[in-house]
Amino acid sequence: MNVMWLFTLLLLLAGSGCSERALKHMPDVSTSAGPPNRTALIRTEHLPNVELTTHEGRAVRFYEDLVKGQVVAINFMFTTCGNTCPLITEHLAMAQKSLDEPMRHKITLLSISLEPEHDTPEMLRGYRKTRGVGPGWIFLTGRRDDIEFLRRRLGVYDLDPVIDTDPSQHAGIVILGNEPQGRWKAISALSHPIRIRQAMERTILPPNQWPTGETVVNEVPSQDNEEVETADLSILPSVN
Amino acid sequence: MEDTLGISRRDLLRWGIVIGGAAMLPGGLRPSLAHADDLPPSPHTDPFILELKPGQGIPPVARKVTPFNTQADPGICVNVDGTTAFHVSKPRVVPANTEFFLIHEKSMSHSFHPQLPNNILWGYDGLIPGPTIVAKSGTPQLVRFVNDLPVNDPVGIGEPISAIHRHGGFQAPQDDGYPLDTFCTGQSRDYFFPNRPAGGLLQNEHSTNWYHDHSIDITGQNVYRGLSGFYPYTNSFDTGDEGTGLHLPANFYNGTPVGPFDIGLVFQDRQFNSEGYLVYNTFDHDGFIGDKFCVNGLIQPYLKVQRRKYRFRFLNGSNARVYQFFLSSGQPFVAIGTDSNLLPQPVTAQSVRISPAERVDVVIDFTNYQNNSEVFLVNRLQQTDGRKPNGLVSRGTPILKFLVEGVVPTADPSDVPATLLPVTEGPAQLLPQVKVQRRIKAERSNGAWVINGQFFDENRIIARPKRGEPEIWILESGGGWVHPFHVHLSEFFILSRDGKQPPPLERGRKDTVLIGGDVARETRILIKFEEFTGRYVFHCHNIEHEDMRMMAQFEIQP
User: Model ipTM?
Assistant: First the structure.
């Protein structure tokens, strides 16, 4: 057992050491020799350094100030969104709250406005207050074209342009990323809050510490929903 | 010189195919439309310079190991090969005739093409595809997978955590690769496969299955990184020996000088950056599409074939791309199997469409080609995003070259008999027993996926079919998306496609069926579960959709 732990620790150290080196030097992926570092590759392709403004009115850069070296949960919303956003915000709040104390401080939630002209820092502060949003959760606004660019880089779009430009149908997914380890995934923010929390845990923790199996399954009470109809055989084509 | 496929000499030149000694190497191999992920095109690679051969793309048959102890509690365990891992499986007793296998998941250096640098991939036993595990009906197998994948791999994608699903397999819930039944680096897990036909029925004997990663959140990344392999079956009629049973072309590559004449071909699209390193978009939840076509991990290889019949087990191992294959010579395919089972009779088809996770077993007879003839396997279905194929194009892309060798035909004891695997319990016998039908509607909702209006939850059962009682499932898909719909544990019959009889290649058994888009708004299937009870999943096999939880659970009742 001790040998295994030592082995794992060595691997962890070796791995994270690599990632940190990459972050310090920000190698240009296009000229690096050898396979690109996964962290650098994701940064280059998906984590632009666009300027945003926090709900506190602070100017920040997306990559450098918000994501670099962090574990993040990112979603897009707007304060006047009446259907999905309140539910998504509620789910994310419950997920964040249900994380164990040490883990809660290891993930930052980032909610980015899709209606930046309307959602001034004041509006976002008001929204946070009404929704009871606590620490470790930053709401962001900015220039519309910057946010559009960021949204597309993060894959939060719909291939159907009609749906994509309809704010009422905007993607309700939460992007989960462990930036220093280059591990990224996504889950619907309309999933059960405990499922979102479990996915957050799988983002914060290395895979060898993921909670798995029946306990994870049963942590959410049964959501069973079975619908059965009487078979209608009359409309089938003839079979040979 | 336009042949029946619409492939002209000009097209062949455009593809850079060597004809009469003249090589043309234009950059015409890329899809004409922009890549949906806004990724720059992969670098140019010359097609058909890399040979697909045993040891290079054709994996060896996995070798049995000495039986080992399966009755210990979870804990540190020394394997029969001297390696050590923390074993997570509960103790169990297996039948005395069980065959044992030991497979390590490891990272390795892999060459997709000599003009690209080597990439660091993950493979079963460090191979792409993984070793071919051959099942024999009536002989159970226990496969111990050891996860030796690197923690915090500084390059590539994927996460070093695994659940192994034997796709198409008839196995108990705990051996089915449920997405949360995982094991991680330094751990091992056992999978027991009984290798008997469902319900004891001959018609349910399997032929072509495969195994791949199935872990929660990141299956798409792990499979793209290399974790898949073939798991074919042999049985009393599909014997793996062309001298017995149905006499189908046979011999897997197992180190003997004969053959192989039965070759698994897995088709996977991949994308590379300007330096030739494999790239993937973890932020693409539509379904990742690459612009390079790999066969068994090699970009556009060639395969030397003798003048005789070959059996190819086509497997679409891509994350999201659908293919439709033609032969450049205009010769039709003789399909002998779809997904897990042989067909009742061979089906002659000018083309085969194959969506992610589907298999089609075909026989191609090269007897009548002249020495040094070149025959191309051409994909004419264009697709630029994960939503659906754009449609058939007249030219397409040649993916594999068969190079026919032999001044005279090779002696060929193989045959394709007119009757393969008769269906004794089909729709005619089962429909009178059907009492219930279920609607399963796949839809996109707020950037993610719902089934019957609900997001996936690990603790939600949406169907409780009774063991041994056939049911009709009505599969619908909205919004113009296609989804390769896959049900675990049991194959099924397709009853109708938008009210009409399905095309000939869909009249056998299936475990994966493409629904939605232009294929069919409504697909009705007939399914029956045998022997095992408990929880299984069905899901979309566009793996990015699957990772975004386009999945639901059913629980078979005793």
Answer: 0.87
